[in-house]
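REQUEST FORM: STRUCTURE PREDICTION
Request ID: SP-0412
Submitted by: Lab K.M.
Chain count: 1
Length (residues): 446
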Amino acid sequence: MNISIPLLCTAVVLAIPNVLHGQTLRAKVNQLFIFGSGENALHLGGTADPNNPQTIRNHGDHFVPAAVSQNGSIITFLTAAAGQSVSNVPIGSTSSGETFRFEGGVPVRTSTSAGPILAERSQTLGRGRAIVGVGRTSVPFSSLRGQDLKNLDLTFTHENVDFAGCDTISGGPCAEMGFPLLENEVIEVRLDMAMDVTITSFYATYGLFDNLDVSFIVPLVSTSFRGTSVANIVPFGGTSATHFFEGTPTAPVLSATRAVEGSAFGVGDVAVRTKLLVRQTQKASLAVVGDARFATGDSDDLLGSGYFSARGVAVVTGSFGNFSPHVNGGYLFRDSDVASDAVLGIIGFDQLMAPNVTLAMDVLSSLQVGPSKLRLPETVRITYPFDRTVQPTSIREMRDNIVDGSVGFKFSHPTGATAIVNALVPLSTGGLRGKTVFTAGLEYAF
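STATUS: Completed
RESULT:
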């Protein structure tokens, strides 16, 4: 196989333009917080109506600072988590099917089963051997840090207003939240969102030497987003309103809704991977795997992570007849201000169940290193007329540790073709997750 073929395929696919529909998906998420006129999240068009008294119009943007802080965090959570999930969906083993080494020019088989699906095994393909394949993975996101995406609650608080003479006018220390009294009003928002991602990955692996493989992976990503928001202003006393979406102070509209949807399609984050077989015996073998993922996917449309990442993994594989256990352990570096590095671990096995059928099972983990670079808005304390706290979101502050269980089958054919089916089930609540992630693929070894 000429190694220029995967490079040419990569260049051709990268030339495919993204198919966008209107604004970016990141902008679509932001629109969930824009009600009525204006382009700023939580701008109160009714309060800012020039037909209302000047004293009312001055309050139109008092919730915008909270929106920038809180909505910005939510958008960052969604886009960063989705980008990470899209970019880091496992491509699969780079040495599927039978593997060989050559002794005196004669090929000697080094594997019994067709190998794992989402983990790596230490055996390499063998000099001059190659695999080409395509895999399709569907990721229906359903929760963010354990919170149902169809039931996210946010509470936006008023800007803390303070200016020269405010203490005298309000009758209290304006530096504290609650003076004047209108600072006690909040906007409660209920979000109902759905995000679905489909990744079609084209990959090729070539054995440069008996102990060294190189792989190229080009994903095509399709992302769709739908969302509905329901907002309610919760007034604080008085016979007329200061904050409202529409209407007048004596006949205010205190509720508003917004619905948005959009989709995008394009190239995701392209990856290059190498595997070096360090040592091999009849019962066990050791290899090291390194890969790099490049920010070729448009992060504004949730097609990629938006940053470079690299992974180094040590792979140990055992061989006991038709049973082959394996352990992967390594480190994931992310060159990002919003995504943390991770320690990677996989433990599992593949078992030849029949002459052409392999069962593969794994537990996969990605454990966050250090504190999270994504911070939710802090609890807001209002001190007057009574001391209380407001939680800005129902999303939990927690570590985004990812643990999944995987089970799948490989169906091999003597011609070198292999069909793959797999299901990935989340075992932890960290990050943006789907209930079950299904993968189907077809590859050919020669």
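NOTES: The domain at 4-445 is CATH 2.40.160.40 (Porin).
Reviewed by: T.R.
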